Amino acid sequence: MSNTEPVPRQCPFCGSPSINTHEGLSFHAWLAQCAECGASSGEIRRQTTGAGTNDDWDRQAALDAIAAWNMRALDSDIDITWTPSADRLDIGGFYDSFVGIPPISMTLGQFFEKLGITEKHISKAMRNHGLQRC
Ligand SMILES: [Zn+2]
Fold first, then answer.
1. What is the pLDDT of residues 71-96, one digit of tens each?
2. Distance 39 CA to ligand 1 centre (A)
3. Domain spans in the chain, listed from the N-terminal domain onward
């Protein structure tokens, strides 16, 4: 066993740093769960026989649940690609290995319309960032 205790990564769904470990619904199962939105690591089976005590096994199951949570938190990625020559904005990715984001492709105009971004907003943003307009 390592001397370094794993620190739970922040929630990939809501950004909360409050991740707790507790017993799951299944017999001798533990999980790590976001206190804010309820996302979880999935249940980790706890050792039930052999060397050690119930407290040792609970402690190890909680550490294993944090390790599983951290893998899930690492696995999220959102890709946004802008291709000016094709006037296409491609958005896709995945929250984790279980939940994908359906890929979307649209023009920049469609993107602005979808978000309610007007020419006035764009002009203001470009001015605020010191970008020149032709
Ligand atoms: Zn969360």
1. 877 766 777 888 999 989 998 877 66
2. 6
3. 19-74, 77-128
